[in-house]
Design a protein that fits this description.
The structure holds two protein chains of two kinds. Chain A is mainly β. Chain A has no helices and three strands. The radius of gyration of chain A is 17 Å and the shape is globular. Chain B is an all-alpha fold. In chain B, helix 7 packs parallel to helix 11, helix 9 runs antiparallel to helix 14 and helix 13 packs antiparallel against helix 14. At the A-B interface, loops of A face helix 5, helix 9, helix 13 and helix 14 of B. Chain A: InterPro entries: FeS-contain_CDGSH-typ (IPR018967), MitoNEET_CISD (IPR042216). Chain A: Keywords: 2Fe-2S, Iron, Iron-sulfur, Metal-binding. Chain A: This is Iron-binding zinc finger CDGSH type domain-containing protein.
Chain lengths: 77, 359
């Protein structure tokens, strides 16, 4: 019976990781699969996780923000 | 971290043995559990103990009594009749303790400024609240200084909740709907191993206990743990068993998940420093990765989703989050205080380390 599968989803959480849901393979550059121990995984976005490519919460310790800071005076576009 | 396969048979939990009473209220509860036909004196004993209690949050007798009454709704007792779960007298006794217990909790939790009842407002408030949680750090102590004996005590103290990890919050599932329900189930499914019994978090924790020569049967160490350890679990049970407190239950879970990933790494480091390998640290390593996922889902989809659907629960959500920080922090403060004084954090000495298969 064909599987009716939802498309994979990546949700970008503000000031935090990217959460990946669904059937996505995460590979090394050589093509070897990285361990995937849970259905939903969080990918590091701050660059400081000790378990990259997964998130370990370190972004909170370093004050990582995802939104660019507002310029003090809006420059003309 | 290797994929450690645990024997499913080894993680089957059984009803616990009766604890030793700690005063008239817990003695009265245990007497009824042993002899359900004679409930005379139960309500009077509870009422008198509540009246006489100087501080319910650290009351050995009443917290043990409440623990026993709650346990009827979890795994139960080997020697108690199963239908006592809904015995009117025992439920009346539970409610008689829960009322003043909830009042004491509300008095102990500092108020938090109310955010906008939106997903972003709630999540930002929870991240700010949990980030501001400071004070002496049990995880740092474990990472840097704890002795082997203190590490064993830490596992014993944690076992009362962790051998039933996630269970209190599962009571929230039928009480939520929509986005909050999906988020709660997503978190709980991961807590319960995603369909693999050996990966249920409580089963992984049981493996950690065994690796230090500790007994992983639920309740083995109940007589050794102080009131504050029972208080923390009793609070989660209170939030879980009462539908009206679902906001507090969700706030509690969110704050719990949001303060777990980073300390879990420290705990793992502590056991590595003491010479243990990943058989022991698997539980903590797992929580570094899992709770970094859960905290995002918990703050936004679960807590934010709940408040967008039921904004009237905002105050209780903040109360539950604050209560997690204050009350779940008490066992840690107790351990640090005792250890700094060169004493054991347990009420009775830890059993001898006679068979610990050191890594």
């Amino acid at each position: 019976m064909p599987e009716r599968e939802e498309p994979p989803l990546i949700v970008a959480y503000p000031n935090g990781p990217l959460l990946v849901r669904g059937n996505v393979e995460i590979l090394t550059p050589e093509g070897a699969p990285l361990p995937r121990r849970r259905k939903t995984v969080a990918l590091c976005r701050c660059g400081k996780s000790t378990i990259k490519p997964y998130c370990d919460g370190t972004h909170k310790l370093i004050g990582f923000v995802t939104e660019p800071e507002e310029p003090e005076t809006p420059s003309g576009s | 971290m290797p994929a450690i396969v645990l024997d499913d048979a080894a993680v089957q939990q059984r009803p616990m043995q009766f604890p030793v009473s700690r005063g008239p209220a817990s003695a009265a509860v245990l007497k009824v559990l042993r002899d359900p036909d004679d409930t005379s004196g139960l309500q009077d004993a509870i009422a008198a103990a509540v009246d006489a209690s100087a501080d319910l949050l650290v009351d050995e007798d009443l917290q043990l009594a409440l623990f026993c009454l709650n346990e009827l709704h979890y795994g139960g007792f080997a020697e108690a009749r199963e239908d006592l779960e809904w015995a009117p007298e025992l439920n009346a006794a539970r409610i008689r303790i829960e009322g003043p217990f909830e009042a004491a909790l509300r008095a102990a939790v500092p108020p938090t400024e109310r955010p906008e009842p939106t997903m972003t407002g709630v999540a930002d408030a929870l991240f700010a609240l949990t980030a501001a949680d400071s004070g002496p750090s049990l995880s740092r102590y474990l990472a840097r200084r704890a002795t082997l004996e203190q590490a064993r005590e830490f596992l014993i103290q944690r076992s009362i909740y962790t051998l039933k990890e996630a269970d209190p919050h599962s009571w929230g599932i039928p009480r939520l709907s929509g986005r909050a329900k999906a988020a709660l189930v997503e978190i709980q499914s991961d807590e319960y191993g995603g369909g693999r019994a050996g990966r249920i978090h409580s089963a992984i924790y049981a493996g950690t206990m065994r690796s230090l020569g500790l007994d992983d049967a639920y309740g083995t160490y109940i007589d050794a743990v102080p009131a504050v350890t029972l208080t923390a679990l009793n609070m989660s049970s209170l939030f879980g068993l009462n539908r009206r407190l679902r906001g507090a239950l969700v706030g509690h879970l969110a704050a719990f998940e949001m303060t777990s990933a980073i300390p879990s790494r420290q705990y793992g480091n502590g056991f590595r420093r003491l010479g243990f390998d990943e058989t022991t640290t698997y539980y903590f390593d797992e929580h570094v990765e899992a709770d970094a996922v859960h905290e995002q889902i918990a703050a936004r989809d679960l807590a934010g989703g709940l408040i967008e659907a039921e904004p009237q629960l905002l105050d209780d959500l903040l109360f539950g989050a604050g209560a997690c920080l204050v009350i779940d922090g008490l066992p840690g403060l107790h351990m640090l205080e005792r250890w700094e004084a060169g004493e054991s954090s347990l009420r009775t000495p830890a059993p001898a380390d006679d068979e610990a298969p050191r890594a």
